Amino acid sequence: MTERILLSPPHMSGNEQKYINHAFETNWIAPLGPNVDAFEKQVAEYVGVKSAAAVSSGTAGIHLALQLLGIKQGDIVFCSSLTFVASANPILYAGATPVFIDSNPETWNMSPNALERALEEAKANNSLPKAIVVVNLYGQSADMDRIMELCDIYNVPMIEDAAESLGAKYNGRRSGSFGKISIFSFNGNKIITTSGGGMIVSDDEELMNKARFLATQARDEAPHYQHSTTGYNYRLSNILAGVGRAQLEVLDERVARRREIFDKYSRSLSHLPGVEFMPEPEGYFSTRWLTTLVINPKEAIADSKTVLDELNKHNIEGRPVWKPLHLQPLFDGVKYYKHSDISVSDFLFENGVCLPSGSSMTEEQQDKVINTLNTVLKNKVC
Ligand SMILES: *Cc1c(COP(=O)(O)O)cnc(C)c1O
C-alpha cells in the first residue's frame, strides 16, 4: 500500500536545526531566550502589530486574552460556531458562558447579520458579551469591516482567533492585526509549526506585558516568590521558538504553495456537479490552509460521507468541515444565532469536505486525490 496522503502534515524548511543547535551551544534550553525574543519581534513585524508574546499553544493564547480582558465567572462571550473546539474551551476555563454565532455563505466565517441580531437582543436583555471571539476559518479572514463596526457600536472588544490564518490578508491588512488581542497557533497541522506553540499579539503594549507576566506564573517584583494574582505556565521554550524562526522564513512560500494546491483542485474539480469550493470574496486573501469544498446534495452524484469513505479507501486523509460548536454535546443548551432561517454552519458541516492541503504534498499525490474525487463525483454516463 502506498503512503497515506495526510491532510496537513508539518513541513520543515531545513533551517530549523540551525536555530536549535544555537540554543544548545549557548545552553539557552529554557526558559525563554534569544530565539523567543527574535521570534516575537519577527511575528509582530510580519503581522504589523506593536507587540507579540510567544506562548505554549494557541489555546493558551485565547485563555490569556480572555484573562487580559477581565472575563470572569458568569460573563458572556460570543464566539463563532463553525470552528475547532479550542476557540471556545478557554471561555469555559474562565467560567464564562459562550453564545455561538453562525457563519455566512460568502466567507463561511462569522455572519455579521447573526452577530447584529445577537448583540441587539443582548443589549435589550442587558446581557451584552464581555468579548467576541472571531475565527478566521481555514485560512480566510472573517468580514472584519462589518464585525468591527458592530464591536464599536456595542463597545465590545474582539479577540481574533487567527490560529489558521497567519499569512492571510483582508483589504491589504494582515490577518491577526484586527483584534484588540489576536492569537496564532503553531500546532503541527498549521501552516507553519513549532511542533506545538502559539503567539498572542496586540497593539496595546501594556496588555502584552501583562500577558507575559500572567504566562510566567504572575510573579510580583520581589526577590522572594510573591504572587497576588493567578498565573499560568504558558510560555514557549527557546528551542521551539528556534523552530518557529526558521518556519517564519518560509511562511510566504508556504502560503503560495497552499494557494497553488487550492487552485489545482479548483481547476480540476469545479466542473463536477454539486462541487462548490470555499469562496474567496474580493478583498480577501486566504492562505488556503485547507482546501475545503461543499458537495451540494441537490446536484452531486455522491454525498460528502461517500466521498470521505472513498478517499479513505484510497489511503487519503479527508475530513468533514468542523462540527459546529452549537451541535457539540459539550455545549448542549448553549444559545445560538443563525445567519437567517437557515443555519449555514449546519449545512457546511453536513456537506463540507477538507482535502489534503499540506505544502509538502507532491503533484502525484494531488493527482491521486483528484482522480479519486473525479471517479466518485463525475456525471453518471446515461
Ligand atoms: C488550532 C486552532 C486553535 C488552537 O491552537 P493550539 O495551538 O492547537 O492550541 C484555536 N483555534 C483554531 C481555529 C484552531 O484551528
Your description of this structure?
The protein has 382 residues and is α/β, with parallel strands linked by helices. It has 2 domains: 16-103 and 110-249, Aspartate Aminotransferase, domain 2 (3-Layer(aba) Sandwich), CATH 3.40.640; 252-378, Aspartate Aminotransferase, domain 1, CATH 3.90.1150. Helices cover 36% and strands 15% of the residues. The protein is built from 12 helices and 15 strands. The chain has helices spanning 16-25, 34-47, 58-68, 89-93, 112-124, 144-154, 205-215, 238-249, 251-269, 304-313, 344-351, 363-377, and strands at 51-55, 76-80, 97-101, 131-135, 158-161, 169-170, 173-174, 181-185, 198-202, 275-277, 284-285, 291-295, 319-320, 336-337, 352-355. The strands form 3 sheets. It has an 8-stranded mixed sheet with strand order 1-9-8-5-4-2-3-14, with helices on both faces. It has a 4-stranded antiparallel sheet with strand order 10-12-15-13. A 3-stranded antiparallel sheet has the order 7-6-11, with no helix packed on it. Strand 6 (169-170) and strand 7 (173-174) form a beta hairpin. Helix 5 (112-124) runs parallel beside helix 6 (144-154). The radius of gyration is 21 Å and the shape is globular. Pyridoxal-5'-phosphate (PLP) binds next to helix 3.
